Input
Amino acid sequence: MDTKKTALVIGTGAGGAVVARDLQGKYQVTMLEAGKEFQPFSFPVNKLAGLRRTGLFFDERLIRLLIPSMRLERSQEVIIAHGIGIGGTTTLATGNAVRCDETLKALGIDLDAQFEALYKELPITTEHQKRWNSATRKMFEVFQNMGLDPVVMPKLLNAEDCVNCGHCAIGCPADAKWDTRVMVDETVRKGAELVTDCKVTKLLISGNEVTGVEARHHGKKTVWHADLVILAAGGLDTPVILENSGIPCPQTLFVDMVLCVAGQLPGFKQDRQLLMPFLSEQDGYILSPYMDYLSFFFKKNWRHPMEDIVSIMIKLADEETGGVSGKRKINKVMTETDRRNMKRAVSQCRDILVQMGIPKKEQFLSLLSAGHPGGMLPLTAAEKDTLHNPLLPDNLYVADATILPEAPGKPPMLTIMALAAKIAEML
Ligand SMILES: Cc1cc2nc3c(=O)[nH]c(=O)nc-3n(C[C@H](O)[C@H](O)[C@H](O)COP(=O)(O)OP(=O)(O)OC[C@H]3O[C@@H](n4cnc5c(N)ncnc54)[C@H](O)[C@@H]3O)c2cc1C
Output
């Protein structure tokens, strides 16, 4: 008789996929995933672009008609994007693989070994630089000339398979981009169970122990029991599950605010390039070329041919204020400091676009969005050895963006994966 202990892993994104893969064998793992198979965007962009004037795309929350695995949530002023389905938000990620664990290190959490293992395992490359088009080369040159120290972005990518279609964030049609579906497949091959269309709603807690979870599987209420539960439903959904289980989180939500400053250069073709090919690190934010599909479809002043649009993304580390309630209502606004920092970043982008030949009065802004929600159960120095918040029952861990201590202002996926790997090692 198999006496192996059992573990439930909730979610299969950056954190969940790593924990499930690393635990399977030590435990008998069941992955409970709210969504289904990832479905990429599969329409011709040009044809859809023609429909923009009809008003068909009147609300950005309709994005799920175009990209079924993407969800957009609204707070008072920011649209927060995340993925639902196998692979979680990593399926929508642009493949950026940067390390952002400075704050964790300052707390005494050393992830060197985990990063080293991930660098060995994953296809992280800067080879794409060899295939940059003239638009990207021009932008890189302008950044260099302005002393902005641009750096080629390390990508989770099989570079030779990339067709430079620019669709990274809406589902790579060439399957060149790596995401955590690879790990989920591996975990299933190792004997774990993957249950999709299974939305966990609540933890079953008895004393200081979690005995299982309640979920809606194909719409029906179900109960799953295990010796160990790992919550990795992402920065918006993990706090909801906790709150609905009687464990409210502090109001420390960050999202990494994203705003693009854009202009028009006929035939420039920034869109025929992988997204975010390089980055420039500034104080509190990064800058990177990025075609903002959201604004392209849903913002009136972006109704230009995509190949004519030049767009620079600001990704800003916001202050950790705000939250999501048990009813999933998001409360997130920019603070005065966020606004001040964003103003500085916008002004810098405007100068870059002027250098590219686009006068300030012809420049336009994107919708305010975000894609890195997290931080509502932040790790502290007191938890450096356990990676376990004392508010949680002993056999319940959180292993996703929820435990990051502050807004990274940079792509966090690799850091979440390293943290998840360390948690799995400890278990
Ligand atoms: C457009 C876009 C591009 C991005 N690009 C990059 C990038 O290039 N590099 C980078 O480092 N980061 C990028 N990010 C951010 C990165 O993808 C996320 O920070 C990361 O995936 C978060 O990991 P996670 O484990 O916290 O959550 P997720 O990856 O979001 O995983 C959460 C999982 O839980 C599941 N789930 C949710 N609720 C439930 C429930 N109730 N029950 C069961 N399952 C549930 C979801 O379906 C999902 O599988 C991007 C984000 C966006 C939106």
In short: The chain has a mean pLDDT of 94.
